[in-house]
Amino acid sequence: MFDFVRKHTKIMMAVMFLLIIPSFVLFGIDGYNQSRDGGSVVARVGSHDITQGEWDAMHKSESDRLRASMPNLDAKLLDSPAARYASLERLVRDRVLAQAAEKFKLTTSDARLARNLQENPSIASLRQPDGKLDMDRYRQLVASQGLSPEGFEARVRQDLSVRQVEAGVAGTGFAATSVADVALNAFFEKREVQITNFNAADFAPKVNPTDTELDGFYKANQSLFQSPEHSSVEYLVLDLDAVKKSIVISEADMKSYYEQNAERLSGKEERRASHILINAAKDAPVADRDKAKARADELLKAVRQAPDSFADMAKKNSQDAGSATNGGDLDFFSRGAMVKPFEDAAFAMKKGDISDVVESDFGYHIIQLNDIKKPIQRSFEELRAGIQADLQAQQAQTKFAETAEAFTNGVYEQSDSLKPVADKLKLEIKTATNVLRQPAAGATGVLASPKFLAAIFNTDSIEKKRNTEAIETAPNQLTAGRVTQYTPARTLPFTEVSQVVRERVVAARAAELAKKEGMEKLLAWKASPAAAIMPAPVVVSRDKAQNSPQQVLTAALRADVAALPAFVGVDLGAMGYSVVRVNKIVPRVAPTNESAKQDRLQYAQWWIEAEYQAYYELLKERFKAKIMTSRPTLTSTDLPLAAQN
Asked: What is the mean pLDDT of the chain?
């Protein structure tokens, strides 16, 4: 084949020209870049595809948001399949609502955008004393989100449009008091019941299956006795921590860094101040603000005439309840702890000074500076470890791209082993056994990455035992793996699973016997309630299940109570069978007025959320939204994170 190419170079060049050039004409270079960078399609909204790359970017954004709001959150939770799937659902929802806003022509005017940006607390904090926006800090703020000012404003504009779609339902929903009370009374209703359980385990000793029955069950249910395909793998992970380990910081560089940053590294200057506050909300009528300002001017004149009376004046006149009792004392604070006008004034004063009247969003302040605490400059040796870590982190960020290229090229060029790359970059080769095609329950890190597992179970990886390509398994993290042993899926022989087969047969037959006896008792007790011998009655409700399974509690609360006592049977599957006797209804205890009000508000919120969810489902159907990735099994550790999304 290659001899033919060498001998007919001109012919091959002509063929490649005919094949490739029209593709560039039709799709352009950007089309190639997008197809390469975007990855596979994981969801679709209408005619718009959502790619793996977009999903990854969304998950990174969601992870960063959660880390910022919950600093103590276990980072491993963010790598779970459930957390990633929640990010995909959020991305699909955003696309559906964006299409709805466009379809319904719910645009956002420039005036509304400007008003929203002015009210944004993060942006308001960037305003200078003259009221103008610090554009350099504004650009830094939006750049931290990977956006330009124009891109940030476009995203805010779209968010405002999307909110109009949501507000169309969420903003107009309500629940009538009479309807809410009927539903809440039923929800909080209690019932006195007696429950007899026919546990499958109690019937197991009566089951003695024959060899023929066991063999028949095994042959009829071979899907239950499958050993899934699995692999033993070795893999390398390149991330910032790995790069840091390879970086050696010289003594001269650390000392130079210390000399340039000693003041910053030693801590922030702190100031202690007291204040007298006259409240005046920023949106209060002009007359009210003028009145508050006049009162502040009177107090300023008084404290300047008698500075030693500041604490007494604050106790008697300050409207800051938190500090007035302490004479207005705010204790020590550093920059960033107070609103900007207050901070600017306090850090411009000398010890003992009393400020002019300072206006903030809270009202009017008179400030007395009580003390200044300058940071004590720490020695180089005290800061040495922190300086080394800072410099390593900075250089690792810079060096990562270079190292990533060497990693990517190395695992491809020497595809029969990971050792050369590991030796070159000083990385540890990790191993794992019984790796499945889908993330295992509780898996974390790279072994929970669907992209990495897909590469591991690629035909080329399995058959030729070649390295996978470098896979981005997390921000600033590349992983490459190699299959060392592959075991295909197979049906386990009867000899290996005979005990399991027996246990399943016994359990199934025992559950059948329990159900049979339970149903017989149910019929007999319905015919003659007085003959029913059952355990002592208990009172159950939705918030007090009395250790009853959910199916039993639901059956007890749904039972027809037109004629009491009422009997109902509950099939518990493998657990057995239960018969519930409902003796009487225990009405809801009448709530206090305040409690009833809170309950009605909660019910209205549930109702509005249900209406909105139903509306969103209609929008998904209308705009043909479809997720092409299967939903992972949710574990108990995923629940808090899923709730946050």
From this structure: 85
Q: What share of the chain is helix, strand, coil (3-state, %, to 5)?
A: 55, 15, 25
Rounded to whole angstroms, how far apart are CA atoms 450 and 631?
12
Q: How far is CA 330 from CA 337, 349, 370, in A?
A: 11, 16, 10
Confirm if 213 and 504 have CB atoms less than 8 A apart.
no
Structure tokens at 362: 């809270």
Q: How far apart are the first and last CA of the chain?
A: 55
Note whether 103 and 622 are within 8 A (CB): no
Q: Determine if residue 277 is left, alpha or beta; phi over 0 gives left, psi from -120 to 50 gives alpha, anything else beta.
A: beta
> How many other C-beta atoms are found inside a 10 Å radius of the C-beta of residue 95?
19
* Alpha-carbon span 339 to 329, nearest angstrom: 16
Cα separation, 250 vs 404, in Å, equals 24
Three-state secondary structure string covering 465-494: CCCCCCEEEECCEEEEEEEEEEECCEECCH
Top pLDDT among 260 and 86 is at 86
CATH topology of domain 268-373: Chitinase A; domain 3 (3.10.50)
Report yes or no on whether pTM surpasses 0.70: no
Return the bridge partners of 444, or none: none
Which residue's structure tokens are 């929903």? 173
Most confident of 64-73, 80-89, 140-149: 80-89
Tell me the two tokens of residue 596.
């009833």
Residue that has been written with the tokens 């779609």 in this structure: 165
Q: Domain 40-122+147-175+591-645 is in which class?
A: mainly alpha
Q: Where are the domains of the chain?
A: 1-38, 40-122+147-175+591-645, 189-206+500-586, 230-251+383-488, 268-373
